[in-house]
Automatic annotation (TrEMBL):
It comes from Halalkalibacter alkalisediminis. The keyword Ribosomal protein does not apply. This is ABC transporter ATP-binding protein. GO terms for molecular function: ATP binding. Residues 3-250 form the ABC transporter domain. Keywords: ATP-binding, Nucleotide-binding, Transport. Gene3D superfamilies: P-loop containing nucleotide triphosphate hydrolases.
Length: 256
């Protein structure tokens, strides 16, 4: 698995760059953090990476293949390998569907995928969903509940189970913990860390919170006004040569 982003730019309207000349690489099993304040272009980058939004210049390459929006067949192949978790799980989970149906939606879309955790033969569909719930630390009995009957943290775990159902090689998380209270945030971050170790998937974790990013990721990119202003390994977080903006983010996080 490799993602190569080269000189990627995106303008929603002429003259205003939501993303400006973005370049980075991610390899299998890596966890890349992208941090930046509101409006810095994080969600735009996430949507571009998923092929949900076109870009104006540059290249996006996944496993050596160029990913260009609007090429439907190619994008379908791509979506088999790449999943996304959003800040607001209520937008991911259909309130009218019981949890087990929501969890299996990606697998229903890609019937050709047989994930390795479903090796037991003859599992019913509900049992498959139960396996996935267990993977994210939820009680199997929750399969029959509806999203409205779950807490925010539980719903986010369900979204993670759903994203993992097709064993993506890349998981893009856009502020997955922003709407949760602090203790639940930590639980979800721990869960992502555990799952990453277990599956060796690659994670691109996007957040305005430098603490969450540095908890999970060994490589960090700092985004400001659509540009990368700093890029470093976790061990270099407190290095004196960090960009002044990164230092400001660290300072703000430590006095909050
Ligand atoms: N659909 C759109 N049409 C026009 N401009 C947009 C659109 N979506 C985002 N933008 C603009 O692009 C810039 C980046 O927005 P984006 O949502 O990517 O930021 P963000 O870093 O995710 O912010 P937040 O932390 O608040 O979620 C902003 O200036 C925003 O106003
Ligand atoms: Mg956003």
């Amino acid at each position: 698995m490799s993602v190569i982003v080269e000189c990627l730019s995106k303008q929603y309207s002429k003259g205003i760059s939501a993303l400006d000349n973005i370049s980075f690489r991610v390899k299998a099993g890596e966890c890349l953090g992208i941090v930046g304040e509101s409006g810095s272009g994080k969600s735009t980058l996430a949507r571009v990476l998923l092929g949900l939004e076109p870009y104006n210049e540059g290249n996006l390459t996944f496993n050596g293949k160029p990913i260009a929006p609007k090429k439907r067949a190619l994008l379908r192949q791509y979506r088999k390998s790449v999943q996304m978790i959003f800040q607001d799980s209520t937008s991911t989970l259909n309130p009218k569907l019981p949890i087990w149906k929501s969890i299996l939606e990606p697998l229903d879309n890609f019937k050709e995928v047989t994930p390795s955790f479903l090796t037991a033969e003859g599992l019913s569909r509900k049992e498959m969903a139960e396996e996935l719930l267990a993977l994210v630390g939820l009680d199997k009995q929750m399969v029959d509940r509806y999203p409205g009957e779950l807490s925010g943290g539980q719903k986010q775990r369900v979204s993670i189970a759903r994203a993992l159902s097709i064993e993506p090689s890349l998981l893009v998380c856009d502020e997955p913990t922003a709407s949760l209270d602090v203790t639940v945030q930590v639980q979800i971050l721990r869960l992502l860390k555990d799952l990453q170790k277990k599956t060796n998937m690659t994670i691109i974790f996007i957040s305005h919170d430098i603490r969450a990013v540095t908890f999970l990721c060994e490589k960090v990119i700092v985004l400001r006004n659509g540009s990368i202003v700093d890029q470093f390994q976790l061990a270099e977080l407190y290095h004196k040569d960090r960009h002044s903006y990164t230092k400001a983010l660290i300072r703000a996080a430590s006095i909050e």
